[in-house]
Amino acid sequence: MPAIFKAHLQKFITLTNAEFQAILPYFETITVKKKENLLTEGQICRTNFFVLQGCLRKFFINEKGVEQTTEFAPETWWMTDNMAYEFQRPTEFFIQAIEKSEVLTIHHTAQQELLKQFPVMERYFRFIYQRAYAAAQMRIKYLYGMSKEAFYHNFNDKQPAFVQRIPQYLLASFLGITPEYLSEIRSKKRS
Amino acid sequence: MPAIFKAHLQKFITLTNAEFQAILPYFETITVKKKENLLTEGQICRTNFFVLQGCLRKFFINEKGVEQTTEFAPETWWMTDNMAYEFQRPTEFFIQAIEKSEVLTIHHTAQQELLKQFPVMERYFRFIYQRAYAAAQMRIKYLYGMSKEAFYHNFNDKQPAFVQRIPQYLLASFLGITPEYLSEIRSKKRS
């Protein structure tokens, strides 16, 4: 499992094997079952999650009492509630495994210490946050300017394998539509 | 003017005066007039902007041909189209000064070089992107789960001075409503 993380790190930074071995103890590997929560609304968000295998989703309970999915994290993606994590505050989100998953976790204090001891990790996380921020800015553009139908086609064009992989009701939740309307959009495309 | 940037950097990193003087030549200070564009749809996005004085906004032209404002950058905020900037691609956005503004600019190549020569700037930009990403995640949550009215009150509660500062039609555009509906929400609050 560390091999996945090492290969991922090496996309962004140069790291000797000794450095990688020294970095590993800052992390813990856990296995979570399908539908198991890694974070629950109201908890102080103390952990950052990196998916080695499987897939996580982030959601909140909206005013109608319905789960609203805002994000997915498949392999080699990080996920946490970044605002609650940085300021060690209670979260408004849930993070849940949508498949049986293997996850690398790092505690907030350990991440601070890692950055202090290994400045090269500043570069790594600068890349991670920079790209995540850029992707979030595009999401905001889509949420403002795109119809739900166009949002589906855009997501399907960019991530066809992923759209096949996730349950239809979660994809509908992410798109902000009902599963029935999603079926309708899909059958229109096929016709 | 450099004093504003120095004070801002020192919130995140420790920098000697000599280091700060060595960093400054990577940047250029420009003055832009009200309504002047710093970035135009279709251009390769080569520049990152840091507001010393004034305020910028980012917008795109939506399917109805209307300007949709997605972001504001007042003093000490960075702004660019991060996706287009990182991959040096044409942008889908405009960046425009909403007041006469003084802006520190850095070219993409210069920023890469700065990060290489001054690794402490990796830490600085890691913080900047981390916080911007966290804020964008909260924006996404609001866009999914909050009524336009609640979004206005939330924004007004958190940034009352800023809400007073920006023109009403731009605030309406940011909220995704008409100026008329914004007036209605505001008068309801007053009653």
Automatic annotation (TrEMBL), chains A, B:
| Top-level taxon in the UniProt lineage | Bacteria
Alphabetical list of InterPro entries matching this protein: cNMP-bd_dom, cNMP-bd_dom_sf, RmlC-like_jellyroll
Note the coiled coil stretches, chain numbering: none
- What is the official name of this protein in its record? Crp/Fnr family transcriptional regulator
